[in-house]
Design brief:
The complex is a heterodimer.
Chain A lengths: L2 H35 L5 H13 L2 H12 L4 H8 L9 H25 L3 H9 L4 H12 L1 H16 L3 H6 L10 H10 L3 H27 L7
Chain B lengths: L2 E9 L2 E9 L4 E5 L6 H9 L6 E6 L2 E5 L2 E2 L7 E4 L11 H10 L9 H7 L15 H14 L4 E5 L7 H18 L3 E4 L3 H7 L2 E6 L2 E7 H4 L12 E12 L4 E6 L2 E6 L10 E5 L3 E4 L10 E12 L4 E8 L2 E8 H6 L7 E6 L9
Parallel strand pairs in B: 3-9, 3-10, 7-8, 8-9
Antiparallel strand pairs in B: 1-2, 1-4, 4-5, 5-6, 10-11, 12-13, 12-15, 13-14, 16-20, 17-18, 17-20, 18-19
The chains are: A mainly alpha, B alpha+beta.
């Protein structure tokens, strides 16, 4: 057995999870901020749409994504018109799929963290001369730090374990779309249990460590509380 | 500095429609029962209520005009919240520096001066979560002053403080207002607090302004009709200590008053309260009595107070004093407007409810 048999899918999976997490944090922060503070009537609608990836089977998500991303689908056509890459069976396509698949796992902790921010402290900051952007960086971010970290870790861990969506839209191109979970599936199909053990063990270990990190984070009290 | 506003706000079942011109040279209190809209009015003035309509003019600046609202961070105010609202992720000194770094005007006072006046020097490195209620409010006041405000807004700053610390803090606030000379709007439901701290007062009832005048007038017991314990407010002009007797003579509008030195703070308060039930009346001067203060007065008016009591409004030299006497005594003494009497004052106080 070759080391690269593990390393290539592992590196690809970690890269996919990292890219997805960073993009999701950037996309979800304003969205979650809005959801946490709006009194708009369409909020439940938005929340329902954002939660859909939790309840939908990955194959359903993957199917629609496949249709949308294919060269004849709307997103695929758009990418082509803009001179972008082909999306199906490519790393870019996987990132788009993962963004949707892991969205609720980042958006919800962020929304919770932002909702829990003490309103009076934000108001106090505004009366002391802090603009809205200033308040976001000087009060909201430091106080929501743990929520943001939880969101990042959950998003990362969830992307790590993605299977159905990848299978539908990514296929199994080594170094491009062959993630750990696909590699495990294929190892089992070929009855290579030794390889499957190694790959599955790796996923198990990483996921476990990430969760330990989250729960430690949630237990640790802020440095300013006795 | 003049503050004028004409504000409307609808918030659920509550509607605010308040209009007033305030001199706002020193401390103006906003009094009224809970639910009268005092805090809401203050929040509207600070720009914290998004739905507020109307106009706000502060000095030369329009804060709200023709539907255009100056955002709170540009209003140059110092706001002290009921529960302090300290930044929990920052230390006390970082809280002060947060305000100082964002201050728009040039520095009125150094942070050291502010910390000293609010007596928080020993708390600077502490975290807000480790402070007591009184300490938190002192830090909140210091932080508000650190932002070099044109005007201070205080929303019931003493209500979250326990009983014993409250009186002390009220006294400190009086000193702080006097030493920093920043105009302030001060919301309170405690009439004694308002009487002590302010020269001007605004009364709110169900979101409407029902009185806007000198505190003495707004809080005149004949004008309150709310069943609260009536009291007189006396401005203090000077003091003279009689050390060997542990007494202090206070020069007030109704004449000199003798009080025991231990009953008043070392730093002279600006005003002192005399509860109407601590004042008795006599037709003749009493030659043999333990009352220290007998003040010649004449009855200005008699007001109904309760089934058994009448409230006598007395003129003593230039000042006004109120006395609560039973109906029976009033009849026995044949009290009527214009009659000369002697007011016997049992004690003076700094708090009304006791």
């Amino acid at each position: 057995m070759n080391v690269s048999d593990i390393w290539i899918p592992l590196a690809l999976t970690l890269k996919l999870a990292a890219v997805t997490t960073v993009l999701l944090l950037l996309l979800c922060a304003p969205l979650a901020w809005w959801l946490a503070h709006t009194r708009s009537r369409v909020r439940p609608l938005f929340e329902a749409v954002l939660s859909l990836p939790i309840v939908l089977p990955p194959s359903v998500l993957g199917f629609y994504l496949l249709v949308a991303l294919s060269p004849t689908g709307p997103i695929g056509k758009l990418s082509e018109a803009l001179g972008g890459p082909a999306l199906v069976f490519s790393f870019t396509g996987l990132v788009i799929g993962s963004l949707i698949y892991s969205l609720p796992f980042v958006a919800q902790p962020l929304q919770n963290a932002f909702s829990a921010l003490p309103r009076d402290q934000l108001e106090a900051a505004s009366t002391l001369g802090a603009s809205p952007v200033d308040r976001f960086f000087s009060i909201a971010l430091p106080q929501a730090k743990r929520g943001i970290l939880s969101a990042a870790v959950l998003g990362f861990a969830h992307t790590l374990g993605e299977f159905g969506v990848v299978l539908m839209i990514g296929g199994s191109i080594p170094g491009e779309t062959r993630t750990l979970s696909i590699a495990i599936y294929e190892s089992v199909e070929m009855l290579d249990y030794g390889q499957a053990h190694l790959l599955a063990g790796t996923v198990l270990l990483i996921s476990f460590l990430l969760l330990v990190f989250i729960y430690t984070l949630n237990r640790a009290s802020s440095p300013f509380k006795r | 500095m003049k503050v004028s506003f004409d504000l409307q706000l609808q918030k659920g079942a509550f509607s605010l429609a308040a209009k007033a011109d305030l001199p706002a040279d020193s401390v103006t209190t906003i009094v009224g029962h809970s639910g009268a809209g005092k805090s809401t009015l203050l929040r509207c003035l600070a720009g914290l209520e998004k739905g507020a309509r109307g106009a706000i003019q502060v000095g030369e600046e329009a804060w709200l005009e023709n539907g255009r609202s100056l955002p709170p961070h540009l209003r140059r105010i110092g706001y002290v919240f009921q529960h302090a609202a300290l930044f929990e992720h920052l230390s006390v000194s970082q809280n002060l520096r947060y305000a100082r770094q964002r201050a728009l005007d040039s520095d009125l006072f150094t942070l050291e001066e502010i910390a000293q006046a609010t007596r928080i020097q020993h708390l600077l490195e502490r975290a807000p979560a480790t402070l007591s209620g009184g300490e938190r409010q002192r830090v909140a006041i210091a932080r508000a002053i650190a932002s070099n405000p044109q005007i201070l807004f205080l929303d019931e700053p003493l209500s979250a403080v326990d009983e014993t610390a409250r009186n002390q803090l009220a006294h400190e606030l009086e000193q702080i207002f006097r030493s920093f000379q920043i105009p302030a709007l001060y919301v309170t439901h405690n009439l004694a607090e308002a009487a002590r701290l302010s020269s001007h007062a605004l009364r709110l009832e169900s979101g409407r302004v029902t009185a806007n005048a000198a505190t003495r007038q707004v809080l005149a017991p004949t004008d309150l009709h709310d069943g609260s314990d009536p009291f007189s407010i006396l401005e203090i002009r000077a003091r003279r200590d009689l050390a060997e007797e542990a007494l202090t003579e206070l020069d007030t509008a109704i004449g000199p008053l003798l009080v025991s030195t231990s009953s008043i703070p070392r730093n002279l308060p600006q005003r002192i309260l005399v509860r109407a039930r601590d004042v008795g009346l006599s037709l003749d001067p009493l030659p043999a009595t333990s009352f220290l203060n007998q003040i010649p007065a004449s009855i200005h008016a008699l007001h109904e107070h309760s089934a058994s009591q009448v409230l006598a409004q007395l003129s003593c030299q230039g000042g006004t004093l109120y006395a609560l006497v039973t109906r029976r005594s009033a009849q026995k003494l044949l009290l009527a407007p214009g009659h000369p009497v002697h007011a016997l004052i049992k004690s003076v106080t700094l708090q009304a409810e006791a």
